[in-house]
Amino acid sequence: MSNTNYSSDKFRNNPQSLREILERIMAILTELNTRYRDLILKPDKNLKEGWVNERTVRYTLEITRPTLLKLIESNKIPYTKLEDSYLFREEDIKILLESNYINSKQK
Asked: For the chain, where are the alpha helices, taking DSSP H only?
């Protein structure tokens, strides 16, 4: 095992190096986010057009699985259940979003 010294002195003396490292990290994170989003939102070839799985709904609404289950249990979001999987119509998700839209100008 090496005794590498992770002193911040080299960054303190060269803030450009730290900035470059941070910029590279941000670029990598941005790329990972894009790839993850594309993977999550990739249409499931096994689903009929117009239907989405729960993973896509959770990502789109930016909610957790427990929150989605609360929406389902409270009948706030229509769904189809096949065995342990929930499926949703894209149109129902759009309706849910529109029905909860709050126009700040109307307040």
From this structure: 9-13, 15-41, 54-61, 65-73, 90-99
Kindly compute the dihedral angle of the four CA atoms of residues 31, 33, 36, 40, in this order, to the nearest 10 degrees. Answer: -140
49-73 pLDDT, tens digit each: 888 889 889 988 999 999 999 999 9
Which residue from 74, 73, 36, 29 is spatially nearest to 55, judged by alpha carbons?
36
CB 78 within 8 A of CB 93: no
Output DSSP code: residue 54: H
Cβ pair 63, 44 in contact under 8 A: no
